[in-house]
Write a structure and sequence with these properties.
The complex is a heterodimer of chains A (about 300) and B (about 260).
Chain A (H helix, E strand, L loop, with lengths): L15 E10 L2 E11 L4 E5 L6 H8 L7 E6 L8 H5 L2 E4 L11 H11 L7 H4 L16 H13 L5 E5 L7 H16 L3 E5 L3 H7 L2 E6 L2 E6 L1 H6 L5 E7 L3 H5 L2 E2 L2 E2 L1 E3 L2 E6 L2 H14 L4 E7 L3 H11 L1
Chain B lengths: L4 H15 L1 H25 L3 H31 L2 H7 L4 H29 L9 H25 L3 H18 L11 H7 L3 H10 L4 H22 L10 H4 L7 H9 L1
Helix pairs in contact in B: 1-2, 1-5, 2-3, 2-5, 3-5, 3-6, 3-7, 3-9, 5-6, 6-9, 6-10, 9-10, 10-12
The chains are: A alpha/beta (about 300), B mainly alpha (about 260).
């Protein structure tokens, strides 16, 4: 793959800018006023339950639909009006992407590369495990293979911005892992990635920032760490010692008491650092030794569910 | 760097017409089988049929290609999200429409040539005498039918609707268009109705009937109008709904034919 898109062509302008965006389908209000920006070189994940407005937002960013209200700018251009120009600088993988059934992947890569005024880059396929399928008609490829091809089409022209709508849905674990590596590689090369996903672990692992959309509005925005820190969920601390001193004596620290599961003492704490320090001192004072200590902050998934349920 | 994207698009659409069974059936097999049956049966029953057999079967083949094959194929492509892929990958809307139309035109060149050669050599059909008029008629017919087929593709929201709309034009064109029977055998009211259909005008040009150039002009104008209206009504996917009133624009390409009713 060639070097990635430069993120510096338009100065400090964000890669994507969405302001006052609203979209309805008949009487159904899919998006009720969303504002956000995607900075160049970052990976931003859009999260939300089904029907939250993620795909509507992405489709307007991709130029497939027009906003009813508000403005959307992609690399400084209106995607609804300048889709052909933007196609050279943006790569898109749709949630359900029709590809010409009678084409082979090789022909598809050539076909779309020519419309972008470039020669095809077959090397994009090699990282996705489609090498052996280049001359098979698309209609004979599995859904997963078709998704890989759609991804290869989205990145073969080394775009500045890549928009991915649930890129790993329906993919096997190995391919998903490969895809995550590919996204990290794209980011290192300066490519901006806007990603809609239902996979919280994926968002937590890859995204610099996360936006949670619920019922057509932004419910939370920030880094995965900021999002998880913002809830009422407490950090879980689990400890197991050689002599089971904690289990036997059941100490309490600043009102935090333990529950017990076999050899483990468990508790939920708003200040896990302080608790662990006090716990270590207490265990040492008892002449005991730690066998296992785990500190688990709330996952993005737990926090996501909390946000969605609170609405 | 010149990459000639539209050329490769057109070549792909042409190949797809050979690879996809439904297109192959409607572009080649169905019209050819119908031609052989009609030539064998009608040629024996009605010797006059041999006079117009070749143009009539060419008109039939073009109707099959542009009304039975192309619209449902294009609407199915739109339903499958293919045009969305075109949009995000920088394929202009005109190219998405023009490529299948032109690919079908090439298929029709082959089919027309086969009909003309086999018609003359095997079924004793009358060969065209004025080749320039014949070629003009062929181009006008293909242009008009491609335009109408395209309009059906653009207006119909589902493949089922596309098939129904296409049949509304296809069946009367076969029955009233002068393909099987001479147009002067039709009652005057029906011959006025027949003038709305492009097949009638194409047969007038092929026959060299009085005022055939008016029919050629109507076909050409209808083709241009259909192309413009199709571009105006084109949508990337079925969810982008146009107001129903705007779809009435699709009737504009009929106007040139309707006018010929009044100027005789």
């Amino acid at each position: 793959m060639r070097e990635g898109g430069s993120g510096l062509k338009d100065g400090g302008m964000p890669a994507v800018s969405v302001a006052g965006f609203k979209k309805s389908y008949g009487k159904v209000q899919a998006v009720r006023g969303i504002e956000f920006e995607v900075q160049k070189g970052e990976i931003l994940a859009l999260l939300g339950p089904n029907g939250a407005g993620k795909t509507s937002t992405l489709e307007c960013i991709e130029g497939l639909r027009r906003p009813d209200e508000g403005t959307i700018a992609v690399l400084g251009m209106d995607p609804a009006r300048e889709s052909v120009r933007l196609a050279r600088r943006v790569g898109v993988q749709l949630q359900s992407q029709g590809l010409p059934a009678a084409m082979t992947p090789k022909e598809a890569l050539e076909f779309f590369a020519r419309y972008r005024g470039m020669l095809p880059d077959f090397s994009t396929v090699s990282g996705l495990g489609l090498e052996g399928k280049m001359d098979t008609q698309i209609s004979s490829l599995s859904i997963g293979q078709q998704r890989k091809l759609a991804l290869a089409l989205a990145i073969q022209h080394t775009p500045e911005l890549v928009v991915l709508d649930e890129p790993t849905a329906g993919l096997d674990v190995e391919t998903r892992d490969r895809l995550h590596e590919l996204m990290s590689e794209l980011k290192k090369r300066g490519t901006t990635i806007l990603l809609a996903t239902h996979d919280m672990a994926e968002a937590e692992k890859l995204a610099d920032r996360v936006i949670v959309i619920v019922e057509g509005r932004v419910a939370a925005m920030g880094t995965p760490r900021e999002i998880t820190a913002g809830g009422t969920k407490l950090t879980k601390v689990a400890v197991s010692t050689r002599d089971s001193s904690v289990v036997r004596e059941q100490p309490s620290f600043d009102g935090v008491s333990f529950t017990f599961d076999g050899e483990y003492a468990l508790c939920l704490s708003p200040e896990p650092g302080k608790l662990v320090r006090e716990l270590l001192v207490w265990i040492e004072s008892k002449g005991d030794e730690i066998v296992d200590l785990r500190v688990e902050r709330p996952s993005l998934e737990e926090r996501f569910l909390e946000i969605v349920r609170s609405r | 760097m010149k990459t000639y994207p539209f050329y490769s698009h057109w070549v792909f659409e042409f190949r797809a017409g050979l690879r996809e069974k439904s297109l192959l059936l409607m572009n080649y097999l169905f019209p050819m089988i119908f031609f052989v049956l009609m030539a064998a049966l009608m040629g024996g029953i009605n010797p006059l049929f041999k006079e117009t057999m070749i143009p009539a079967m060419i008109v039939f083949a073009v109707l099959c290609s542009y009304l039975l094959a192309m619209p449902s194929s294009m609407v199915a492509a739109r339903e499958s999200g293919l045009y969305r892929s075109y949009r995000i990958n920088g394929v202009p809307s005109w190219a998405g429409m023009a490529a299948p139309m032109l690919a079908n035109a090439v298929h029709m060149v082959f089919v027309s040539a086969i009909i003309a050669i086999v018609g003359v050599l095997v079924f004793d059909g009358r060969a065209p005498t004025e080749w320039a008029r014949f070629a003009l008629g062929w181009c006008c017919l293909v242009g008009a039918m491609a335009g109408i087929g395209l309009l059906v593709s653009v207006v119909a929201e589902t493949t089922r609707a596309a098939t129904l709309l296409a049949q509304l034009i296809y069946i009367p064109s076969i029955v009233l268009g002068g393909l099987m029977t001479p147009p002067d055998m039709l009652p005057s009211a029906l011959s006025r109705v027949a003038a709305i259909f492009p097949a009638t005008h194409a047969m007038r040009v092929f026959r060299g009937s009085d005022g055939w150039w008016v029919s050629a002009l109507a076909l050409a104008l209808s083709a241009v109008a259909a192309a413009i209206v199709s571009l105006a009504l084109y949508e990337w996917d079925t969810k982008n709904v146009r107001p129903k009133r705007r779809k009435l624009m699709a009737l504009i390409p009929i106007l040139p034919f309707a006018i010929t009713i009044f100027i005789g």
